[in-house]
Amino acid sequence: MSIKPNKKLLIPVILSLFVGIFFVACYPLSTGAIHWRIKFDKEKIAQKKAYLTDTILVNEKQPNIVLIVADDLGLNDVSCYANSTVQTPNIDALANEGVKCVEGYVTSAVCAPSRCGILTGRYQQRCGFETQETEYYPTNIIEYLTGRYISEKDTNWVVATKPRYPREWQIAKQGVPPTEITLAELLKKANYSTAIIGKWHLGKNPKLNIPSVRGFDYQYGCYGAFTMYVDNQIQEDIVNYRRQSFSAKYQWDMARRDDAMIYQNNKKIKHEKQYLTDAIRDRSIQFIENNKQNPFFLYIPFTAPHEPYQAPLDLYVKEFEHVKDKKKAVYNAIIRSMDNAIGAIHQKIKDAGLDDNTLIIFLSDNGSASYSGITSNEPLKGGKLTPYEGGLNIPFIFKWKNHLPENVVYRKPIISLDIFSTVAAVSNIALPKDRVYDGVNLMPFFKQETDTAPHDKLYWRTDHVHAIRKGDYKLIYSTRDKWKELYNLKEDKGERNNLFFSMPEKAADLENDLMEWEKTLPVKPMWPRIMDYRFMIDGKSYLFPA
Known about the structure:
The protein has helices spanning about 5-25, 40-55, 90-95, 110-120, 140-155, 170, 185-190, 245-255, 275-290, 315-320, 325-350, 390, 420-425, 445, 505-520; strands at about 65-70, 100, 105, 155-160, 195, 220, 240, 260-265, 265-270, 295-300, 310, 360-365, 395-400, 410, 415, 455-460, 465-470, 475-480, 485-490, 530-535, 540-545. The protein is α/β, with parallel strands linked by helices. The strands form 5 sheets. Strands 9-8-6-5-10-1-12-13-2-14 form a 10-stranded mixed beta sheet. It starts with 6 loop residues before the first helix and ends with a strand.
């Protein structure tokens, strides 16, 4: 005997089921996310304020500081480092007139954390800036699953975190925290005029961490990770190359909105018509002209050659139209455009009679984005996002006429943290005693006043991926994916021969040193990463966090 369902009871059950599914799907992922609450150390902020308030007198011995940072530029993108398919005569000129470091490292293989280390002189993990700032987190399960599907459908980006994210008012605190002293704030202590002309990518909160509240008198450029080189994507004097990937599509769609907007002194420039690299060049030259009578700090973080790929048509036609691979031709033209801008800025310093009183530092924030299929860091392994040499070993040049030797190749390991300590030393500014500074003054090493190496150990950590270089050996491992690799960089710079199983004692020694360093760091980062990128390297699959 069959039993007919009671329609009067069935309808409410179905409705209840749909309502339940709806509320579960829309349940906010930030609920209960106390784990990601950002708190700033008030005592540290007070100590910083007291230190910066105690200004020092400027004297004629204090040099100008020009810090030039390229965006995703690898060793193979600079001709004086060999293997380059594009000539960079102006970057090469800095090396010919100064010190070229071949074992120069950054503290992260991705933009924002690396820049935090550059501008604070401290491993960025000390203040919790371990992964990229995240502009947007999914707010409910529907958004989470939709975003996961879209990102993983046609790309190697993998949503690898549990869906538990900070609330909006906590996201607004992301960036270099107010406890940290930036290089601009340090030099303001000695009454330097300061400017940032280019990419910031260290926060956008107007009360906490935009350039104007972090020591910069003048600002021009974007606050976020990228922006278009021109305002109009379809422009007769520009040649574009669009990669068909999730991240590339996002950047082209973003155009110059939100964090990709161009700002000048915190005011939006709605229609900047000039090619961005040229605009950075011209404003840098103007700043030098306006401030040549007093000590100045000019920070020039170019957006080149970061995606989206847009090159000046005249330069493309003149220099690279013969290159059969269009994407490589566009990429090379972007680099050449930046090199030309660097040459013009360098020439302005000479023409203004400032050459022997200006320390110029050039480096990249990480290795080139080899995952794009456009550039390669070979024979180095990996590239941007990876802890291999291709992601961390970058072009790094110091030039100071009559103060540093010329046309010298320095072969001992240095790191971007050394910029802060070196600048403080040459500017006669004593560093505060209430915090650890991880960099060293490189001047005695470059002048061969000592035979020792600047560092006996260098450290890296990005979420579950950890690395250390000690002497010639480098250990890399993932605490989540349970793999470990050990390399002898003197004999195997390309990191092809994993010695972990044949040298377990050496691996254990490095791991112990790395763990001791990590004990000095905060328990956790200030915010969660949201994605990993899947790499296939030498036939092995890796997930590296952003």
